[in-house]
TrEMBL record:
Name of this chain's protein: Fe2OG dioxygenase domain-containing protein
Species the sequence originates in: Macrostomum lignano
Entry-linked PANTHER family: PHYTANOYL-COA DIOXYGENASE, PHYTANOYL-COA DIOXYGENASE DOMAIN CONTAINING 1
Pfam families per record: PhyH (PF05721)
InterPro entries for this protein: Phytyl_CoA_dOase-like (IPR008775)
Length: 338
């Protein structure tokens, strides 16, 4: 590279093919993938895992989310932001109505959910899921702090995510870590309501649009290019992405929050320390690391930002990146390194 050339702050020229060559031995525990599925995960970067969860497991997630939506409605109503709580609408419609009354309500909901509700913890430490992960990351497994509740309301540009790799949001110290994502939709996800598209390893081929039935999930890694489509239906396309990695590898969240150990080899009675994990509010830590004023304390602020923005050469803009660039001179570049 010449002295005149400039690379983005997140570029390191690192290569880590060993992450995909050094595979743990194939196990034979309940929930583990077939050899064909593992091969697809390693060669294409993703695989669809069908009919994995019981209905009651995902229904429990919906109950906890519905409670947070009610809390959101109360908060907005009591603050005079909305005039109707829309109590009579169901799980897939209520947030749509609240969002129409207060654009950005879905962002407020995300900021109101810093900790893992009980049903989310159950998935994060799910016995069969951890068995599955053993074949990829080994027997010592930690939960990554970058989990997300996705509130994709209809025709909402703010929730339509362009092509990216998850490592683009992680710090550079984590580039040698394999982080495995389970993208779990809470309905039958399809092209109409905003499912995911994957590129896989071969970028020359067309994107793959994946229908993901309720009870199934997409498994992919932090290097797999993917995006979500616009939700052209009339319901919320609820989904959650959970992430795990080998214990001892970098969390990737710029030193703001560590991982949580969920399985320890040789200790079948091991239990995660969720209270310690939840003692750090990731959303607030991200905002405070970037705040130039009191915006991090504003519970109705609908802007999202984080230290990963310092990594990017921003070529597509929205209200979040506009605010970042307006104030970027005030943020510290060393946040890139935690």
């Amino acid at each position: 590279m010449t002295s005149q050339e400039r690379s983005p702050a997140g570029y390191t020229a690192e290569r880590h093919p060993e992450l995909f060559k050094e595979r743990p031995a194939k196990g034979n525990k309940p929930g583990q993938l077939s050899r064909a599925q593992l091969d697809e995960f390693y060669t294409r970067g993703f695989t669809l895992v069908r009919d994995f969860f019981a209905k009651e497991e995902l229904d429990a997630l919906k109950v906890d989310i519905a409670a947070k939506v009610s809390e959101l409605a109360d908060k907005l109503y009591n603050a005079g932001k909305i005039k109707d709580k829309h109590k009579g609408l169901g799980f897939y419609y209520r947030l749509c109505a609240i969002e129409r009354d207060f654009p950005g309500a879905n962002i407020v909901l995300l900021k109101m959910t810093p900790n893992l509700p009980p049903s989310f913890r159950a998935i994060a430490a799910h016995e069969r899921m951890l068995n599955l992960l053993e074949d990829i990351v080994g027997p010592n497994i930690s939960f990554n702090p970058v989990w997300n509740l996705r509130t994709k309301t209809p025709n909402n540009a703010a929730s339509t995510v362009p092509w990216h790799q998850d490592s683009g949001y992680f710090d550079v110290e984590s580039y040698n870590a394999l982080v495995v994502t389970a993208w779990v939709p809470l309905l039958d996800a399809n092209e109409q309501n905003g499912t995911l598209q994957m590129f896989g390893v071969d970028m020359a081929k067309d994107p793959v649009t994946l229908d993901v039935p309720y009870g199934s999930f997409l498994l992919f890694n932090n290097f797999t290019p993917h995006r979500s489509l616009n939700n052209r239906s009339d319901v919320v396309r609820w989904s959650i992405d959970f992430r795990w990695q080998r214990t001892g590898t970098p969390a990737g969240l710029f030193g703001l929050k560590p991982t949580c150990e969920v399985r320890r080899h040789g200790e079948p009675d091991f239990r995660p320390d969720w209270d310690s994990f939840d003692s750090v509010d990731r959303n607030r830590a991200q905002l405070e690391s970037m705040a130039w004023d009191d915006s991090a304390a504003d519970e109705f602020n609908i802007l999202m930002s984080g230290p990963w923005m310092k990594k990017w050469e921003i070529v597509n803009h929205n209200k979040h990146t506009d605010e970042f660039e307006k104030n970027s001179e005030d943020w510290k570049l060393e946040m890139l390194h935690g």
